[in-house]
Amino acid sequence: MIERLDSKEEVRQAVAEARHEGKTVGFVPTMGALHAGHLSLVQTARKRTDFVVVSVFVNPTQFGPGEDFAAYPRDLESDIELLEAEGVDLVFTPSVEEMYGPGAAGAAARTGSADTSALFTGASIDPGSLAERWEGEIRPGHFRGVATVVAKLLNILRPDLAFFGEKDYQQLVIVKRMVRDLDLPSLVVGCPIIRDADGLALSSRNAYLSPAERAAAMTLSRALDATAEVLAWGERSGQALSAVMRETVEAEDGAVLDYAAVVDPETLEPLEALTRTARALIAARIGPTRLIDTAALQPPPREEGA
Ligand code: AMP
After folding, report:
1. Which residues approach ligand 1 with their CB closer than 6 A?
2. Where does the pLDDT of residue 304 fall: very low under 50, low under 70, confident under 90, or very high at 90 and above?
3. How far apart are CA 22 and CA 160, in angstroms?
4. Which atom of ligand 1 is nearest to the CA of 38?
5. How remote is the CA of residue 56 from the centroid of ligand 1, in Å?
6. 224 near 245, Cβ under 8 Å?
7. Which residues pair with 273 in a beta bridge?
8. What local confidence, expressed as pLDDT, does residue 111 receive?
């Protein structure tokens, strides 16, 4: 039977009991509205650890003014059913007050029109320079909110392994770096992206898309595929490869590109030339919905004598 707990103290106790029984602890943080992408993380956690905890918490501090905090899809009952079917031991569903203290829920309700930093009246995590580019540039404060809530969750649970999707690649890199820099006692495990049959990366925000927008959203994965193809033909220039992504998205009337970049997989700095595995990052707006996608770019080995 899955157990659902809302309080940090009870969760700490439940995890301590599991540890006392000699179990390893795996953790998958989510914002709910679960889909097969989330469940793949849960399945990996189930395989690799004895006691699996999933958090469902729509974290207000990672939403900027005018973003979709209030509208973000929420379906806790269905989420718990899905998690139970995956054999999850514990689902942690804290309230905003439980996570951020008395009065936080009122401030969170005002996000969307106000400044989310009102929620940070005390300490928070500065995620450093990795958070300045790409998503961080378009969503100021987003990664401060992510880093802070992840640090809090890792402190509450102290899991052996914590599972994050490559779907949010910049987030994964930032969380890995934070865990290292702050000596948090967990290992961060990156998990591959799960896609619909036609290639669209699964996302809770896909629920916002109309059928026409759903069709336009395909431009993200198409852009990544086009870049991988040009790379396979022998193109090595980071600028040329990102231009392929940009042009693919620009050819789609229903999409507006935020960025398309080919970057170093650890520093996230743009690459001039691909000499080893790189990362393609792409973000676009499809009507009012922002979507992101990413792929590893593996340059083919140069032919002998070429
Ligand atoms: P979210 O609920 O959007 O905060 O996502 C929770 C976790 O699920 C994050 O680590 C995401 O990167 C991961 N995730 C979201 N979508 C996918 C996907 N399509 N495939 C794999 N992991 C995903």
Report:
1. 30-31, 37-38, 40-41, 164-165, 167-168, 191, 193-194, 201-204
2. low
3. 12
4. 8
5. 12
6. yes
7. 237
8. 56
Strand partners, 285: 256, 290
Distance 164 CA to ligand 1 centre (A): 7
| CA atoms of 194 and 212, how far apart (whole Å) | 22
Residue 113 — pLDDT band, cuts 50, 70, 90?
very low
Where do we find the tokens 């398309």? Answer: 260
pLDDT top residue among 118 and 271: 271
Question: What are the residues whose beta carbons fall under 8 Å from the beta carbon of 274, sequence distance 6 or more?
Answer: 231, 236, 237, 238, 241, 262, 297, 299
Q: How far apart are CA 217 and CA 254, in angstroms?
A: 8
Closest CA to 164 of 297, 294, 278, 284: 294
Å from CA of 28 to ligand 1 middle: 9
End-to-end CA distance of the chain: 60
- pLDDT value at residue 11: 98
Q: Which residue has the higher pLDDT, 286 or 301?
A: 286
| Distance separating alpha carbons of residues 85 and 64, to the nearest angstrom | 34
The pTM of this model reads: 0.96
Provide the phi-psi class of 278: left if phi over 0, else alpha when psi is between -120 and 50, else beta: beta
Q: Tell me, yes or no, if 38 is annotated catalytic.
A: yes
